[in-house]
Specification:
Number of helices: 5
Strand content: 35-45%
Structural class: alpha+beta
Radius of gyration: 16 Å
Distance between the termini: 27 Å
Order of helices and strands: EHHEEEEEHEHEHEE
Helix content: 10-25%
Largest sheet: 8 strands, mixed
Strand order of the largest sheet: 1-2-3-7-8-10-9-6
C-alpha cells in the first residue's frame, strides 16, 4: 500500500481525534495513549511553532496514522516535568534534549484497522528522513503497564534507554514509570 507523510491541517483533525480516541486508555498489545486530545489541543499544536503534527495518509487520502513532534525540552521541561526529575544513565544526554536539533515524539497512533500494515514504520522512517540531522526522544510508560508495542518499535529504529521518570501518580496512573528513549542522528 502507498502512503504519504505530510504536515497535518485543520481538515485532518477529526480523523486524528478518531484514531486518538480509539487508543485512549485501552492498554492493549498494540499500544495505548494516556493523553486525551480535543479539537482545540490538536489545532493549537498545528499552529504552535514549537510543535508539528504529521499525518500518514493512504491512497484515498484518509489519515491512517499521526505523530506529534515537540520542542518541549528547550526550557528543560516536558509537559510540566523538569529534566531533573528524570534519572539519566548519562547526564550528557540532557544536552541532546535541549538542542535545537531535537524533536520529542510526544504522541503518535495508527488507525486500528491499519495496525501491522507498515503505517508506523512508514511514518517513523519518513520523520527520520525529513529531519536526518536531529536527535529524537520519546517517553514510554513501562510501569505499572508496559507499552510493549512502543518499546518494540523504538528498538527497531535504534533508540536507546536514556533515563527513567517515576511518580506516585501521574496522568491518573499510580506508581508510574516512564522510560525516556533517545535516537541520535545516523
Amino acid at each position: 500500500m502507498e502512503y504519504t507523510f505530510q504536515k497535518a491541517t485543520r481538515r485532518d483533525i477529526p480523523e486524528i481525534l478518531e484514531i486518538a480516541d480509539s487508543h485512549y486508555y485501552t492498554f492493549g498489545p498494540s499500544g495505548f495513549l494516556v493523553s486525551k486530545y480535543t479539537y482545540e489541543i490538536i489545532s493549537g499544536k498545528i499552529h504552535n511553532p514549537n510543535s508539528q503534527i504529521f499525518v500518514t495518509k493512504n491512497q484515498d487520502g484518509e489519515v491512517v496514522g499521526w505523530i506529534i513532534l515537540s520542542k518541549i525540552f528547550h526550557t528543560e521541561t516536558m509537559n510540566g516535568l523538569t529534566l531533573d526529575r528524570f534519572k539519566f544513565k548519562n547526564e550528557e544526554d540532557k544536552k541532546l534534549l535541549t538542542s535545537r536539533k531535537h524533536w520529542h515524539m510526544e504522541q503518535g497512533a495508527v488507525r486500528k484497522d491499519m495496525l501491522h500494515k507498515g503505517v508506523g514504520s512508514f511514518y517513523y522512517q519518513s520523520m527520520f528522513d525529513m529531519f536526518s540531522d536531529h536527535t529524537f526522544s520519546s517517553n514510554v510508560i513501562t510501569k505499572p503497564v508496559y507499552n510493549r508495542a512502543s518499546v518494540k518499535i523504538k528498538g527497531k529504529y535504534g533508540f536507546r534507554e536514556a533515563g527513567i521518570f517515576e511518580a506516585e501518580e501521574h496522568k491518573e496512573i499510580k506508581n508510574m514509570q516512564m522510560t525516556l528513549f533517545i535516537r541520535e542522528p545516523k
